[in-house]
Amino acid sequence: MIFHNDDRRFADPPIQLLPTHGTHSMYVQDMGHIYHRKWKQVYQSSVFDWDQLAVGGRLTAVAKTPGKTVLKFAVRSGPNVEQLVDQPWRGVVEGEFKLEAVDRHLQYQATFISDNGDRYPALDKVTLNLRP
Q1: Domain holding 49: CATH number?
Q2: Can you say how many angstroms the Cα of residue 92 is from the centroid of all Cα atoms in its chain?
Q3: Residue 115: inside a domain
Q4: Residues in CB range of 85: below 8 A, 6 or more apart
Q5: Which tens digit of pLDDT belongs to each residue from 23-48?
Q6: What's the CA gap between 32 and 13, in Å, rounded?
Q7: How far is Cα 104 from Cα 48, in angstroms, rounded to an integer?
């Protein structure tokens, strides 16, 4: 697919289809994630662990969000890795998140949302601080 720039940042671009092998094999799809065609990408961090009581925490990030792009964070936690993966993701609100007293494992998720399909947030650094 060749997207012609129409000066509206790909809101409804004229498209020309060419037969070729591309990044998505022979699929002719619009811009966006190949799984769901949305202008959204999700990253899941490694699992972090700790050995003392914590009832909450703070997530801070160094990121660039050009235009109207959005970067959202969520966390999930559990007493062990097996129970962690069964937990639902909980949104991080103003950088804060809660933990249960028995939790000893934590994972965060970053969702990168594009406003037009050709630009996304850029995440440089995430810091997690736990609160006893």
Answers
A1: 2.60.120.200
A2: 12
A3: yes
A4: 78
A5: 555 555 555 666 666 778 899 999 99
A6: 14
A7: 8
Number of domains in the chain: 1
Residue 15 lies in a domain: no
User: Phi and psi of 84, rounded to 5°?
Assistant: -60, -45
CA–CA gap between residue 87 and residue 3 (Å, rounded): 40
- Domain of 103 in residue numbering reads as 38-131
Query: Do 81 and 105 meet the contact criterion of CB atoms below 8 Å apart?
Result: yes
- Do 56 and 126 contact (CB within 8 A), yes or no? no
120, pLDDT greater than 70: yes
Pair of tokens at residue 10: 């790909």
- Domain assignment present for 100: yes
Residue 65 covered by a domain: yes
Q: What is the pTM of this model?
A: 0.73
Q: Token pair 């498209």 is at which residue?
A: 15
- Determine phi and psi for 43, rounding to 5 degrees: -120, 135
